[in-house]
Design brief:
The protein contains 2 helices and 30 strands. With 546 residues, the chain is mostly beta strands. The protein is globular, with a radius of gyration of 23 Å.
Length: 546
């Protein structure tokens, strides 16, 4: 009997889910019988932890993120395996829907409410003498990219990223203060803690949404942050200051930034119920419906109730083409559609006959709708009109869809069913599959998230790893954020150690890259089990990724 395990899935906000909450890839066949039995025992504990709670324990301290000591499976029933993400947590719907925050800086309160309301600062009485002029924030020279306060002057003209499959010690590093740039000790990249959820009055955590979601707006001046109350918040991505709480989007609203207008974003009603796509002007808070699909979907499927990607999808890189799965009021699947934002036209329909996808997404080019699932259909790339299809993987795993250097759509994922647990890519146009690197290294395994959102830097993805286990200890690909080239024998640049203990789903790093590859955002509990989680940013000149 072969031991197996894999990450739990991303939590979603839908009604009760009738699918298994754990999806288990085969463990490397090189494990001996004793190790396999021990892993099976650990899996039982993991399944229990995955069903609820934060998975923490009074003696749950075996993973020391300040050094290379590995929490091995043997003799540790609350090892990394029991601290993997807790799947299918629901994003709560805020009540009431938050109103725009009247002040750019929230005043923390001892007990955060669902809508943290800052106390307005009274207008100061003019002093007899003028106040000293504050020192301006350094700005980049004309023609250079703004990396944010503290990072604009960080890199020298000869700076280079550390490349290769290097198994580096994770240096001990105290949790940094918000807004203070610091150097990642192992890789000399510029990092900043973006949020301080406690001081900013955001209950439990302040985190970026997901690896497959673009956190930064079109010009990298704003970044989206999500909190446990179901509210969405906007921060200044250059000064790291809180800007406002959005009014309108709530919980699983699947927010997508406009591709070129930094003040616009799109979202759907919570969990897609109502079958609309809305546009929000961030500065003014005004909202308008740009796609009302309800009547058209009900004409095809009378029980249609929700249209969404189920938390993990994105439109095409230019925001024009969307792929949406359609559910009934019991969260049974009725179909999948593609929609053209510019013409408000449904381009194709796919009947699913109850075979519910895990999630769907449009490819960056807009030529393919990728439907991911664990039924016999597996993960399939359909043409926009659903008249042709190509199977990409026999099941659904963490993945994303990127552009390669030639501009082709590329599906990037991990295949735990292969002997080496291949991290791989598939060209959606040609069907060519290329192995990037093995994930089963020296009898260990790990989980990944993929971000292919660097559309202006085609040929590269960001991969973050977490939840590793196996008696051989930490390997080169564990507990880090890295840039990986989309090519055979790829270049790999090490960007940071995320230092997240991952005692809870929300603490998964889930790194996401900006369109130009100048910023990578990730989540971390900074070595503390639980949900004390904030967002961190790696800033780097895109020219270093080459």
């Amino acid at each position: 009997m072969e031991a197996s395990r894999s990450p739990c899935r991303r939590p979603t906000g839908e009604a009760p889910v009738d699918q298994p909450i754990w999806k288990e890839p085969p463990m490397t066949p090189s494990l001996n019988a004793t190790s396999r039995l021990t892993l099976l025992f650990t899996l039982v504990a993991s399944l229990a932890a995955c069903g609820g709670g934060d998975g923490s324990s009074a003696n749950d301290t075996s993973q020391d993120l300040g050094n290379d000591t590995e929490a091995t499976v043997e003799g540790d029933t609350m090892s990394v395996a029991a601290r993997r993400k807790r799947d299918r947590k629901h994003k709560p719907t805020p009540s009431p829907i938050p109103a725009p925050t009247p002040s750019p800086t929230p005043v923390p309160t001892p007990t955060p409410t669902p809508t943290p309301t800052p106390v307005p600062t009274p207008t100061p009485t003019p002093a007899p003498t003028p106040s000293p002029t504050p020192t301006p924030t350094p700005t980049p020279a004309p023609g250079t990219i703004n990396l944010g306060t503290g990072c604009n002057s960080f890199y020298s003209a000869t700076a280079a990223l550390k490349a290769g499959q290097t198994n580096d010690t994770i240096p001990t590093l105290a949790k940094p203060a918000k807004g203070a740039a610091f150097s990642e000790p192992a890789y000399q990249t510029c990092e900043v803690r973006l949020t301080d959820h406690t001081a900013e009055g955001l209950a439990t955590f302040a985190r970026q949404d997901y690896s497959r979601r673009q956190s930064f707006n079109a010009d990298n001046t704003r970044v989206l942050i999500y909190s446990i109350t179901g509210h969405w918040h906007v921060y200044d991505a250059n000064t790291y200051q809180f800007v406002k709480t959005l009014s309108g989007p709530a919980a699983d609203a699947e927010i997508q930034w406009h591709a070129t207008n930094p003040d616009l974003l799109y979202y759907v009603p919570t969990n897609g119920v109502g079958m609309q796509v809305l546009e929000l002007t961030v500065s003014s808070g005004s909202t308008r419906v740009i796609g009302n699909l309800g009547a058209r979907l009900k004409a095809r499927w009378p029980s249609a109730n929700a249209a969404w990607t189920k938390s993990e999808g994105s439109p095409s890189a230019d925001g024009r083409y969307w792929c949406l799965m359609v559910d009934n009021s019991s969260w049974g699947s009725v179909g999948v559609v593609t929609w053209d934002r510019d013409t408000d036209t449904i381009l194709g329909y796919l009947d699913t006959n109850g075979d519910r996808p895990d999630h769907v997404s449009m490819s960056p080019s807009g030529n393919y709708c990728v439907v991911s699932g664990d039924s016999a259909r597996g993960t399939v790339a359909y043409s926009r009109d659903f008249k042709s299809q190509r199977k990409l993987l026999a099941k659904s795993e963490h993945s994303d869809i990127a552009l390669d250097a030639a501009g082709d759509d590329i599906y990037v994922s991990v295949d735990y069913s292969t002997n080496e647990g291949d991290v791989f890519m598939v060209n959606l146009r040609t069907g060519a599959r290329t192995v990037l690197f093995p994930s089963y290294v020296n009898g260990t395994a790990t989980a990944f998230h993929f971000s292919g959102k660097a559309y202006k830097k085609p040929g590269w993805v960001v991969i973050s790893s977490y939840g590793d286990y196996g008696s051989a200890g930490k390997q080169w690909l564990h507990r880090k954020v890295m840039a990986v080239q989309l090519a055979a024998n790829p270049k790999i640049y090490n960007l940071a150690h995320h230092r997240s203990y991952v005692g809870d789903y929300w603490a998964e790093p889930q790194a996401s890259v900006s369109r130009d590859f100048s910023r990578v955002i990730f989540n971390s509990d900074w070595g503390k089990s639980g949900t004390d989680i904030d967002a961190y940013m790696i800033a780097l000149p895109p020219s270093l990724v080459k």
